[in-house]
Amino acid sequence: MDKFSLFVPNFLPCREYFDPGNNNACPGCGLALGVRHVYKAADKAMEKALWENISDTKFFGIKTNPSLLKIKQKKNELIICLDNEAGGSLRDALKKQMPGMAVAEGFKYVATACPSYPFDLYDKVKKALDTEGKSYIHILCPCPEGWQFDPENSVKAGFSAVETLAFPLYEAVCGFYTLTVKTAKPKKLSDYITIQGRFSGVTDSEIAEAGAIVDKEYSKLLEKIQSSYSYTFETTGKVY
């Protein structure tokens, strides 16, 4: 038994809102696991939640077809995108534009999350529901069938996405960015790509190009984080 299976059930709330027996999720479904954690974090707020299907439409000006969960309360609205990258290309898998678009549109709280990091996901849903105004969380949900890997490796696939910097975990509060999970020694992007059968035809040169995309996107993120730190220090004299 891995550490994930051993410790997570002991620290997240016991009450279950998601019944795996009453849905058509495949074995090892990352989306189902993400939904389960979201439901636990949202708790009674789930009574006001609505699922929205935006297949073949544009979301934040981007043509996509993710699963969206919306939770409206008196002082806030939370939009959660559960992204299993259905039908996406390698480039689509590495360039997640929607969180940045949400920040640009003035969302007060924006974050990325993954069910492989349940406590990070849980905390972000809680923060979003406590934030006045609009919030957005983009959750990467490894899909065994779509990505073509062994269902037992769903959690490991999520770890790999984060550890190779393909999907960094961060939050932006009123436009100020912070990494929530830091990777001291990033792993090679090829480690993430090659575990997915859907990319079995990708060449070494394409992997190198993908690596350049990841490096560029991560550098942009670090610049935003540094700017946030600099502004905070200049205005308050403190770094939080």
List the helices and strands and how they pair.
Elements: H1 3-11, H2 30-42, E1 49-53, E2 57-59, E3 62-64, E4 67-72, E5 76-83, H3 90-94, H4 98-104, E6 109-113, H5 118-130, E7 133-140, H6 144-147, H7 154-163, E8 170-173, E9 176-179, H8 189-193, H9 204-236
Parallel strand pairs: 5-7, 6-7
Antiparallel strand pairs: 1-4, 2-3, 4-5, 6-8, 8-9
Could you characterize what this model shows?
The structure is a single chain. This protein has 240 residues and is an alpha+beta fold. The chain has one domain. The protein has nine helices and nine strands. The strands form two sheets. It has a seven-stranded mixed β-sheet with strand order 1-4-5-7-6-8-9, sandwiched between helices. Strands 2-3 form a two-stranded antiparallel sheet. Helix 2 crosses helix 5. It is globular, with a radius of gyration of 18 Å. The termini are far apart.
Order of strands, widest sheet: 1-4-5-7-6-8-9
Tally of strands: 9
Average pLDDT taken over every residue:
86
Largest sheet: 7 strands, mixed
What proportion strand? Answer: 15-25%
Task: Report low-confidence residues grouped into runs of 5 or more.
Answer: 232-237
The helix content, as a percent range, equals 40-55%
- C-alpha-based Rg, rounded: 18 Å
Order of helices and strands: HHEEEEEHHEHEHHEEHH
Distance between the ends: 36 Å
